[in-house]
Structure formats: C-alpha cells, structure tokens
C-alpha cells in the first residue's frame, strides 16, 4: 500500500505526457483543441432543421381544479384549473391540454353541445371561445368585461346567445358567433321590487325554464329568485328566502325547481304558489332535544333529475351538521326514501349528473355522476343500487404520494411491458362498476411511429410506479413499495438513527437496467435497495450491507502525515460488512447505526421485483450520513457504485461485499488539483474485499480553471442546490461525487485493449477514471475478488458521462441477459450468466483503437479521444446560467447532447463536434420540482413534473413534431344531435310542449341595439371561425367532413321525407277522429235539445 502511495505522490512532480493546455473556449461552437486523427472522421447528419421544440401531452390530475363541464352528445369532459389550464378528456387516448395566455383561474366552463366549441370564463373577467374541431384547440374570440365581474354563465342547448351574470347583479347577453354584447340587459334594479332597500347580491344562477325558453330564472346570492319574461321584459314572479342561495335545479316539466341554501336546507318551489316553499328539508339536520334543528354546513350544489321507471334523484354536496367534526366531504344521493352518503377522500370542487338526453324538458334518465375533487376525479354509477365507481382509465393517481424523482426510458425491450402489466394486474383494486367508462368521446388511433416507452416515478412514501408511456398515453403497469423492506417502528417508538422525521422512505433516484431487469432505488435515509425481477414468489432473507462513508472535518493533516494514513481500505474478507448498532459509540452519541432497520427474518415476496440487497450508510460519531448524490449499476460486472458529499463506494452485489470505500480526497492521494490539505478519513472500522494491483495504478491529470469554483455565484432565481440530494455541499472543503458511469474504456494511455472502468465525476469539476479487473468466468466471478485502482484525472464540472465509438454512435454498456433467479432448474442446461456487449469494440471494425468520451459539466462540454486522452472538442454551453440536466441521446437517427439550463433554455449540440443545433428559451426555473424531475431520453424526448400532480412530456425532434397530429386524438367527431322525444298528442294539445323563442329577434342589434363599448372589449383570436374550421385538418380533413356532411344531409332528407309522410298520415287520422268527435258531440247536443223539449 505504501508503494502505491509513493506512485501517486511521484506523479505530482512530473508533467503528464498526455495532458492538455488550456483550450481557447468558444461559446458559439465546439472548438477543436487537438489535431483530430484522420480515422476520426464522423459524418454528422444533424442540422438545425432537425430540431423543433413542442409539448406533446400532459398526464396526471389537473392541478388545483376549479371548474367542470360535460358535453352529453360528444361525451367529452373539460376541467379548468386555478392556473388557467383546461384539460379535455374523452375515451382513453383522447387527452388534450390547453392553456390561456394569462394565468387567471378558470371560473366556469360551458360546452357548445355537439358544436365542437367550448366557452371559458376566467377570473380576469374574460370570456374565451375555444375551437375543438382540431387536435390542438385554439381561441377564436375573447371578450373582456371592463366594469363588471363575471360570476355565472349559462348557455341554453342549441342557442347562440350566452347569458352572463355579474357581481353587480346584472345579466348580460353575448352572441357566441360574433362574441359581442347584445344591447339587451337585465338590470338588477328592474328584477327586484322597487320597495326593496338592499342589493340582492351577485348572480349565482341562470337557467331557462324547461316549459318556456322565454322565461329566464335568475338566482341572487341573498336568497332572491326572479323569473324574467324575456319577451315582455318584466318579472313573472319573485321569491324571497332568508338563507343565501348556492344553486338551483329545475324539474324537467318546468313546474317546480329546487334550491340549495347556506343553512344546509333544500327548498322545493312550485310556480303556482311562490309565496312560500312547497317543501323544506334538512337532509342531514336532526332535531335536537330542545326541539331545534342542529346547524348544518351549506349545500353548495344540488341536481334534481327525473327517471321514467323510478323515483327522482336528488344529488347534492355538503349539508353535513357542524357537530360532526373531522368527517370527510360527502356526496349525498337521495333516491325516493333511500339516502346514500358517499364519503370522499378530498374536498368536492364540482360535480355533474350525466343524463341520457341533452334537452332539459325531457325525462333526464341519469346514469352517472362525475365528481371533481381537489386531488381526484371519479365517476359514480347511478344504475346500480350500491352506487359503485367506475375504474378510471386515466392516470389520475400519479400524485397519490408526492413525486420525488422521475426516469424516462424509450425503446425498451418489447417483452418488458407485457410482463410488468401481467404482474401488476394481479394487485389491482376491485369493486368497480362492471359497466364501461361513460366518457367515450373523441377518436384515437395508435400512431405508426410507436415503440415501447416506460416512465418510472419515485414517491415520498417510498413507492415506485412503472408506467407504460407508449404512443403518448400513460397507463400504470406495476407498483413497488420499498418500505416493505424495513421494519415498521412500534407505536410510540422513536428510532435513534432517523435522518428525517417525515417520509423516511422517500425515493431520491433510481437506476434501471431494462435488459437484465436489475433495479436500484436510492432513498432519502441514505440507503440503496437492489431488486431482481422474478415471475415466481420467493421467501428469502434480505442481505444488509452497512457502510461507514464519512470524513473527519476537524482534523487537518499535513502532507507528510498522510504517509501513515492509507486512503484505501485494507484488504479483508469476502463476508458482508455487518456493524452492530451502537458499536463503538460513546454514551449519548450516535455511531455505527443505520437510519432504518432492515427486516432480519426471511420475507415472502410476490412475483415482480424482489429485494436482494440493502446498502445503508451509518452514523459516525454523532454525524448523520450524507445523502447519496450519484448511483450507477452494471449487471455485466455485477457492481454497484454510489457516492455522496463524503466519498465513493463500490459494492459487488453478486458476492454481497464492499470493494471500495474512500473519501473523494483519498482518490487523489497527493495529486490534488486544488492543492487542498488532505483530511484524514475516519478510522476505518470495516473490512472490504477490494484488492489493488500495483501495476495498474497511475494517475494522469489535467488541471485548469474549474467552471464551477466556489467563488462563483448563482442566479438569484435558482438555488445553488441542484437537487434535493446535493443540498449542502461546501465546495471549498467537501467534494461530492455527482455522476458515475461504468463502461469499457482504457485505463491508461498505453493500453491496447479496453477494460472495465468506472468513471467518476465530482462537484469540483474533476473526472477520475478507475479501472477494474473483473473475472469473466462464472466460477471465478463468484469467487475471485474484483480489483480497483485510480488511473485518470481530468477537469470539468461533471453532470454526464457517455461513450461513443469512432463512428459517432452510442456505445451501449455491457449488461447481463435476464434470467429468473427463482425459476425452475434444468439439469441439462445449467444456469449461467449470459453477458452481452461485454467488450463492444471487439465486434466493430476499426474501433479497437479507441473510443470517444463525452463529458458534460454545468457550463461546458468536452469530447475526449481514448486512450490518448486528447481533448478533441470543447464548447462553453452557457455563460450566464448553468446546466441542470444533460444527456447523450438519439434523435433523428443520430446522436446529440441535450442540455436543460437553469434559465429555462433547452439546447442540443452535435456530437462529436459540439456544434450548437438548437437553443430555445422554453420555461423559467421557478422551483426545485422541475430541476429534480427533468430528464431526457432517446428519440428526442423529455419530461418533467409541470405541477405536483402532472407530468409534461415534450419533444425536440422535428420528425416527432410533424407526426404529432397523427398521434393525438380527435376531440370532435360528427354526431347527429338526438331528436326531441315524442311527448304524445294529448300532452302537446294541452300545452305540455315547451314554447320556442326567437332569440335573434329579441337580442339582435335590430331590436335590442348595441351595448356600450366601455362595458366589454372584443379581442379576436388568431383566425376566425371559418378559417379555423378550414385549417383544422387540411384538405383531406375537409374532404372527409364534406363527404360526411353530404351523407348526413342525404340521410336527413330521407328522414324528413319519412317524417312528412308520417305527419300527413297523422293529420288525416286526427282529422277523421276530430270529425267523429264533432259528430258525437252534435248527436249529444241533439239528444239534450230533445230532452229539454
């Protein structure tokens, strides 16, 4: 060991032969810093035209929802949010997100039923008309109210006039086609009696009478309800009630309506007698001992729906008594004498009853209730007596526990999704309605350019979710709970080693090898769990490996003293390192204890991912372990590497042993590029199985200015902490390991063949190259130790490391082919580890002479030629900000370096020349959530957590942007509007049919005049209605719609002819019966006259 130390010290006095001088940096393009060898002639095919940034689709539950609407003919639903977003959902695959330019909250949504349009009313008192006849909805018109605040909107079915109630109590009327105000206004002082001394309050309800479209029911907040005759411009009747009104709902016959009030009561009113309510009920108010009703919470909304074959449904939210503290929000369903109370997990924002008919004057026949909660979206089946909920096909439970990390894998092995789905399907919840999901609008087809994609989300409760993200959809495949690995603390027990009080199992990062199905999870309590996938259940113990990775921050030793302080651990046995909790600790000081306790007994685990090894960092002399900042796993080598702000550790997970445990300074030895005084590591209280070969250990170093030295400052808009795991690193005294990468590389300049290596990047801009000797034979790999040594040092604030061959293609890392660890044994075919791409250069012509290494830091990128370690290209990525995420990915059948900066810019650089190809100011960094969850993947795609409940996917590939229209679903499909039900001769004869209203005659400019220009301002959209319809689908779409329209017209003409013939027959029959009635009454009159005589 001393001999190796002297080798490291001797390198500091000599000039490394392969080091580079300081290159002349350029922020415009990659700058060659060495003469490029003739054989490095990569034909780069990427140009700027290959890149275009656009959003693809948004998954998850709409964050902070505020409004809900449903189109009963198209069968699509719209959800508005507090940040101005609108989500439109149809059948699975039909999911569209659109956003207002302003961030004003969406107060109300109104579909133009079966017209392919949507009206949104926002908190900035603006109405917007959206065109839904295209895959990407767009605003056609906007109307900004200047002097009044919008409180309620109502759009009658098949009407082009929108009623708008305001905070002042006035009701305005807007033409939907032109989006201008009518001169017809219902002023509040005309709606109430002149003797009334108080203002009735804002308008909280507007609806037309089912019996007569010319009668408008206006509800004011104070408890006043007025029926306004639109033709006569006067009040038919007024209702005064002592309690404030929250909502009103009509009976379909138009003779009764029901109101919900702030005292938890429901009042039923009859138009024949409006002096007092026909019925007053307190559904949840009981009579107390003193005879008084107990006080109840307000009923915020009520729906009164009728059914042909059963009693009416009265459905409302709220109304519980105040004395029942802690009760969850409820939705109450009153059906006849039966009252069912459905408790919700979250507060109710809005609900809507889905009915068979869009006409309000017909029997409604409700079949479901859509309930929008603050953090969930459910649909209740009303056709079954127990009112089960439908199984939600949308990924609305991403935020079931807060998302703490994400990973995105494109072009996965094709067999991984079906097997994950089959395992996860066994654990799905039951008890759902057997009927199909009722929201079935829109059309969607799987695009032609689809490939297997998987998104992995880690959560605060320690759970992991695997999602199928193929074809821009999202469906959960499998859920894994990492907390089951650990013992649960007993009630009242406080663990002495807890690192965090809340969410001790929260997931910080994941590492997954899809080929070998090895999966690693890093938790916030400084632990790592390694999982293997099996299709069979198992009952095996979990091996625990405890690691002391801590540096002494107090003792500062001189360089001479380090001769007697070895920085590498002494060789030891192959047994796993087990430290008993509390060993070696002084009284009252936490030492050698982990943060969590692993289950000691064998654990029975179901098929799926099964825990095999848990690595935990220990407390040292009262200091908690540093959170893990980097992780990499290689299934071919059987090695797991991780690092934090204290150092680096390498674990052999096949032999369950610790190979290396070093502080970052100890990796340098005396060759520290920053000339820091070496701190001694903690007294090593563990043994490892690592062994160093003296003939492998040498260090070549490159030293120049660090792009992220401690003296540099960050932008005020973003913290210096780049992730939750790198939160308190002192860049002058501590050096965190920020990235790790296993791969086949050259340990030193003279090597002729690549060997297994571990590349280490640190927070101070240093890259270390550690070669390893990994036995390749099955028996040797499980028995012989892996040897490790430090070889290369180079500069750069490291975020990402990747390897390219000399043709410019990504070199896939070596991996093991998956085999089921619990599968049945075959005596004829012994189970052996099958390795793929263990030495990727050996099968490529001309690539055995070297490879390219891509190193990306917070501010610059480099391309190195191995094994000469020559820097071929260097590029300054940003001067005013710093890179948060970087990755080498495929795009447009080539390779590029993609970067996401703290100032919101997304950039792409060509490889290996590092030419800038795209630089788009996408979004500003406002919080750590985006920085923690942003990730790139192959195919020119990326994702991030746009809100605590939503995942936004984007693409920067021009090819995918062009094919996006094909991949998205159609929101609008041509459907014939249902006909009005035949109400029968006698009901129509005696006045049962609703009276039609010529609204154009009443509200048009000819009769009502023009509205005041100062009242509202019209803001036209980018194009008009006709232009948007023409541009919706291009020529092909127009021809298809024209063909459908012709077919519909022909069909309607045929139906009209049949109806005309039927009406003529009915008229002849009616004439015949009328004549018979006339003859009969004439005969009776004659008999009566004869009797009188």
TrEMBL record:
Residues 10-27, 718-728 have a biased composition (Low complexity). SMART domains: WD40 (SM00320). GO terms for molecular function: GTPase activator activity; myosin II binding; syntaxin binding. The keyword Acetylation does not apply. Residues 1024-1084 form the V-SNARE coiled-coil homology domain. The keyword Cell membrane applies. Pfam families: LLGL, WD40. PROSITE patterns: V_SNARE (PS50892), WD_REPEATS_1 (PS00678). Residues 1-37, 560-588, 677-732 are annotated as: Disordered. Its main location: membrane. InterPro entries: Lethal2_giant, LLGL2, V_SNARE_CC, WD40/YVTN_repeat-like_dom_sf, WD40_repeat_CS, WD40_repeat_dom_sf, WD40_rpt. It is found in: Cell membrane; Cytoplasm. GO terms for biological process: exocytosis; Golgi to plasma membrane transport; protein transport. GO terms for cellular component: plasma membrane; SNARE complex. Residues 686-699 have a biased composition (Polar residues). Keywords: Cell membrane, Coiled coil, Cytoplasm, Exocytosis, Membrane, Repeat, WD repeat. It is a peripheral membrane protein. PANTHER family: LETHAL 2 GIANT LARVAE PROTEIN, SYNTAXIN-BINDING PROTEIN 5-LIKE. Belongs to the WD repeat L(2)GL family. This is Syntaxin binding protein 5L. It comes from Gadus morhua (Atlantic cod). The gene is STXBP5L.
């Amino acid at each position: 060991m001393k001999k190796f130390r002297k080798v490291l010290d001797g390198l500091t006095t000599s000039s490394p032969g392969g080091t580079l001088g300081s290159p002349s940096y350029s922020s415009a393009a990659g700058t060659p810093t060495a003469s490029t060898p003739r054989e490095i002639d990569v034909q780069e095919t990427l140009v700027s035209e290959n890149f275009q940034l656009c959003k693809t689709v948004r998954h998850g539950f709409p964050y902070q929802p505020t409004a809900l609407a449903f189109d009963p003919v198209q069968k699509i639903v719209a959800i508005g949010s507090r940040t101005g977003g609108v989500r439109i959902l149809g059948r699975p695959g039909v999911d569209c997100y659109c956003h207002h330019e302003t961030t004003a909250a969406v107060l109300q949504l109104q579909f133009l039923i079966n017209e392919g349009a949507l009206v949104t009313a926002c908190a900035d008192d603006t109405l917007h008309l959206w065109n839904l006849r295209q895959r990407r909805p767009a605003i056609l018109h906007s109307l900004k109210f200047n002097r009044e605040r919008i409180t309620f909107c109502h759009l009658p079915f098949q009407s082009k006039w929108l009623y708008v109630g305001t905070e002042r109590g006035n009701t305005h009327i807007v033409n939907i086609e032109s989006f201008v105000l009518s001169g017809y206004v219902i002023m509040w002082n005309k709606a109430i009696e002149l003797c009334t001394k108080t203002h009735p309050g804002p308008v909280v309800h507007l609806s037309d009478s089912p019996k007569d479209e010319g009668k408008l029911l206006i509800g004011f907040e104070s408890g006043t309800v007025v029926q306004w005759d639109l033709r006569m411009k006067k009040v038919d009747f007024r209702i005064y009630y002592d309690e404030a009104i929250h909502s009103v709902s009509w009976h379909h016959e138009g003779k009764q309506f029901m109101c919900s009030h702030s005292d938890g009561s429901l009042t039923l009113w009859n138009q024949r007698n409006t002096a007092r309510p026909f019925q007053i009920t307190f559904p949840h108010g009981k009579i107390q001992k003193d005879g008084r009703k107990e006080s109840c919470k307000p009923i915020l909304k009520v729906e009164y729906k009728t059914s042909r074959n059963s009693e009416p449904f009265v459905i409302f939210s709220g109304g519980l008594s105040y004395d029942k503290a802690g009760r969850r929000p409820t939705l109450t369903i009153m059906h006849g004498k039966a009252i069912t109370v459905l408790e919700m997990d979250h507060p109710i924002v809005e609900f809507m009853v889905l009915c068979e008919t869009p006409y309000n004057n017909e029997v409604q026949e409700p079949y479901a209730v859509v309930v929008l909660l603050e953090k969930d979206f459910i649909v209740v089946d009303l056709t079954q007596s127990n009112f089960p909920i439908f199984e939600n096909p949308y990924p609305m439970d991403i935020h079931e526990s807060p998302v703490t990390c994400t990973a995105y894998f494109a072009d996965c092995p094709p067999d991984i999704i079906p097997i994950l789905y089959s395992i996860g399907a066994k654990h799905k919840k039951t008890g759902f309605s057997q009927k199909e999901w009722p929201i079935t609008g829109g059309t969607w087809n799987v695009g032609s350019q689809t490939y297997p994609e998987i998104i992995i989300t880690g959560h605060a409760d320690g759970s992991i979710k695997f999602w199928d993200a193929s074809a821009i959809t999202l469906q959960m495949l499998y859920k894994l709970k990492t907390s089951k690995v650990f013992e649960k603390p007993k009630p009242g027990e406080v663990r002495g080693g807890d690192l965090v009080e809340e969410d001790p199992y929260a997931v910080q990062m994941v590492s997954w090898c899809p080929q070998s199905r090895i999966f690693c999870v890093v938790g916030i309590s400084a632990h790592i769990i390694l999982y293997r996938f099996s299709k069979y259940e198992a009952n095996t113990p979990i091996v625990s490996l405890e690691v002391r990775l801590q540096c002494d921050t107090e003792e500062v030793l001189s360089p001479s003293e380090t001769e007697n302080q070895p920085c590498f651990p002494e060789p030891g046995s192959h047994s796993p390192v087990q430290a008993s909790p509390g060993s070696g600790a002084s009284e009252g000081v936490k030492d050698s204890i982990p943060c969590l306790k692993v289950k000691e007994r064998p654990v029975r685990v179901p098929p799926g991912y099964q825990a095999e090894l848990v690595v935990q960092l220990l407390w040292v002399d009262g200091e908690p372990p540093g959170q893990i900042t980097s992780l990499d796993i290689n299934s071919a080598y059987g090695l797991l590497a991780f690092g934090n702000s204290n150092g680096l550790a390498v674990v052999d997970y096949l032999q369950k042993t610790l190979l290396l445990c070093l502080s970052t300074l100890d990796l340098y030895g005396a060759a520290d590029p920053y000339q820091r005084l070496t701190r001694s590591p903690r007294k090593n209280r563990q043994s490892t199985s690592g062994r160093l070969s003296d003939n492998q250990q040498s260090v070549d170093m490159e030293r120049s200015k660090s792009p992220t030295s401690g003296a540099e400052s960050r932008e005020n808009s973003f913290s210096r902490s780049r992730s939750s795991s790198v939160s308190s690193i002192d860049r002058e005294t501590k050096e965190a390991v920020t990235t790790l990468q296993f791969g086949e590389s050259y340990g030193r300049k003279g090597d002729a063949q690549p060997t297994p290596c571990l590349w280490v990047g640190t927070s101070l801009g240093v890259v270390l190259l550690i070669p390893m000797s990994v036995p390749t034979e099955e028996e040797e790999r499980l028995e012989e130790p892996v040897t490790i040594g430090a070889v290369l040092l180079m500069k750069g604030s490291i975020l990402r490391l990747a390897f390219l061959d000399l043709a410019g293609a990504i070199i896939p890392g070596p991996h093991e082919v998956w085999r089921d660890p619990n599968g049945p044994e075959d005596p004829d075919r012994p189970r052996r580890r099958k390795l793929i791409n263990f030495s990727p250069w050996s099968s490529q012509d001309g690539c055995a002479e070297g490879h390219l290494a891509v190193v990306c830091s917070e501010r610059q990128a480099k391309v190195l030629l191995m094994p000469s370690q020559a820097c071929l290209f260097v590029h300054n990525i940003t001067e005013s900000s710093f890179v948060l995420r970087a990755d080498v990915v495929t795009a447009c059948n080539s390779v590029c370096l993609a970067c996401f900066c703290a100032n919101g810019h997304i950039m792409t650089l060509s490889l290996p020349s590092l030419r800038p190809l795209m630089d788009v100011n996408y979004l500003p960094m406002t919080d750590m959530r985006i920085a923690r969850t942003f990730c790139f993947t192959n195919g020119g795609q990326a994702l991030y957590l746009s809100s605590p409940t939503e995942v936004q996917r984007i693409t920067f590939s021009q090819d995918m942007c062009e094919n996006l229209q094909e991949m998205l679903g159609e929101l609008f499909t041509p459907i014939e509007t249902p006909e009005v039900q035949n109400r029968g001769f006698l009901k129509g004869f005696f006045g049962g049919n609703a009276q039609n209203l010529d609204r154009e005659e009443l509200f048009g400019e000819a009769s009502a005049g023009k509205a005041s220009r100062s009242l509202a301002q019209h803001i036209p959209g980018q194009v008009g209605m006709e232009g948007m319809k023409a541009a919706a689908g291009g020529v092909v779409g127009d021809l298809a719609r024209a063909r459908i329209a012709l077919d519909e017209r022909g069909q309607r003409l045929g139906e009209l002819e049949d109806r005309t013939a039927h009406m003529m027959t009915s008229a002849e029959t009616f004439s015949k019966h009328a004549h018979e009635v006339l003859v009969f009454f004439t005969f009776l009159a004659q008999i009566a006259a004869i009797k009188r005589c």
